[in-house]
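Cross-check.
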Amino acid sequence: MEDILELYAEEYMADSPVVCFDESPFQLISETRTPIPAEPGQPARADHEYRREGTRNLFLHVEPLRGWRHVDVTERCTAADFAYQMRDLVDIHYPEATLITVVMDQLNTHTLASLTEVFPPAEARRLIEKLQIRHTPKHGSWLNMAECEFAVLHGQCLDRRIGDRQTLVQEIRAWETARNAAQARIRWQFTLATARKKLHRLYPSQSLWRTTSSACQERWGIS
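Predicted model, tokenized:
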């Protein structure tokens, strides 16, 4: 945890960006009846019935300090899909960077070994030398700022019925373009100092010090 929080506290460096990465499924849902648009004094209306049109996977990259994000819609989320996402990160999104630090959870496909399984050895090595992976702790994926960006995406763009892949891509691209133009940033407030204060039970030595200190104060009246 502290490793991730210290990383978030570092200053912005264009040649060494910190990018948060995550993935999420999305259920395509179409209407069974044509919705009735809104009119003066009358809200839009839609039938409660719907039709499931399958799922798609969303890969999201976000660089919090620059206010940039990118979302790809894919059919699957295999190790190969992950490997191609990392290649795009190196060759398309950050071709001038010397090192890209990527924060992600501990999903079994989220390893640099996925690149060696997909690309020839020389190509895999080239990509790996440009990437530094930082995994969030087990059960600590909430430390990944990409989850914050996914929450914004779902709240501002995907909180409605979308029935086909083309529409999904178009809507996400419009949202992404507008948010990047505004350079919208994530205001991360959970610092290392806050973690040590609120999660002191996770620090055995600190918890022991607190217990011993309290006992000494009670026994000898030390303030």
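Residues 28 and 163 are 5 Å apart (CA to CA). Residues 165-181 form the longest helix (17 residues). Passed to J.P. for a second look.
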